[in-house]
Amino acid sequence: MRLVVSVDVEEEGLFTGCYPPGDAPVSNVRRLLDLDPMFRDLGIRPTLLVTYQVARHEEHREFLADLRERWGGEIGAHLHPWNTPPLDGSLQNDLVPSEGIPAGQLAAKLEGLLETLQAMGPRTSSFRMGRFDMGPRMFSVLEREDVAVDSSIAPLRRKRGGPDHLLAPSDPYHPSPADPCTPGASRILEVPITIVPLVPWIRSVLRRISVGRSAPPPWVVWSTMYLFSLPAQPVWTGLGRLKAAARLHRGRGGQVLTLFFHSSELLPGGSPAHPTQGHVDRFMGRLGRFLRWLRAEMGVESATLSEIRDPYPPTRALAVGDVR
């Protein structure tokens, strides 16, 4: 099983609804250096998914390019549409879903972000949408760009007013162009963050419940998200559940374990979950212990997002009923 460690390198303002549309604070970016001993010791080659508000600063572009070379990693694109130009005043915060933004506006924002990132080296081929807000409209925009790998799907999750990823597979797949949560024939490889169903039949149950409905009842959605799924995400849960998720994923044939966290979570006060240095230290300790366990007990091999694409030609797209 291969391991993808992805970091959303972004401005401060996480989960506050107060991302500034102009020159946003980005002091957290330098905190990535705190990961250096861990990443170099364990051979972690991360994918750094960078927002426009970070990439617009030359000093951060140089810093991140140096980290990419130091770690043998990759720089990808992370789109925050609410504060990525062109700005027309219609997006006042991060609560407007991508399905409510015109496709032409999304395309212009993505193109501007990719051009800004190109100052760091070759045009990026990996992408993640802010807030995991990937729906059919944004995916159609991605398909018109040189993006080869997306990692914007959070399986077994649904956001009110946003995308529905409840039925998405937990392992990489080629999506249907009309629905990024359904396996199909897109040239883009979807590498979802790893969240696994606690029982393999949960997706089948959700499909049956949804027959004749626009969506399952709220209590079913809540139960799926919080009782019947295990996230392999160190910022969300404890070490025991992380190990259980990894074992379960591999036991069901999972080939890729995809972790994510935000650069702002390395800065005390940079996110509500980490208000103090003590919270940051505990997260770093948990992350390090999980990565060491993955290497020692699971024998994982670190890879960047773009490197995952090679073993996944469209003919290997997962079947719709795949439990992974």
Brief summary of the model shown:
By secondary structure, the protein is α/β, with parallel strands linked by helices. It contains ten helices and twelve strands. Strands 1, 2, 3, 4, 5, 8, 11 and 12 form an eight-stranded parallel beta sheet that branches. A two-stranded antiparallel sheet has the order 6-7.
In terms of topology, how is this protein built?
Blueprint: E1 2-9, H1 36-42, E2 47-50, H2 52-55, H3 58-71, E3 74-79, H4 103-117, E4 126-129, H5 136-142, E5 149-150, E6 175-176, E7 179-183, E8 189-190, E9 195-197, H6 202-210, H7 218-226, E10 229-231, H8 239-251, E11 256-262, H9 277-298, E12 301-302, H10 305-308
Helix pairs in contact: 4-5, 8-9
Task: Characterize the structure shown.
The protein is an alpha/beta fold. It is built from ten helices and twelve strands. It has a domain at 2-194 and 254-265 and 300-314: TIM Barrel (Alpha-Beta Barrel), CATH 3.20.20. The protein is globular. Strands 1, 2, 3, 4, 5, 8, 11 and 12 form an eight-stranded parallel β-sheet that branches. Strands 6-7 form a two-stranded antiparallel ribbon.
Query: Runs with pLDDT <50, length 5+?
Result: 315-323
- Gyration radius over CA: 18 Å
Average of per-residue pLDDT values: 90
Discrete helix count: 10
CATH topology descriptor of the domain at 2-194 and 254-265 and 300-314: TIM Barrel
Distance between the termini: 13 Å
Please bin the fraction of helical residues.
25-40%
Indicate the overall shape: globular
Largest sheet entry: 8 strands, parallel
Order of helices and strands: EHEHHEHEHEEEEEHHEHEHEH
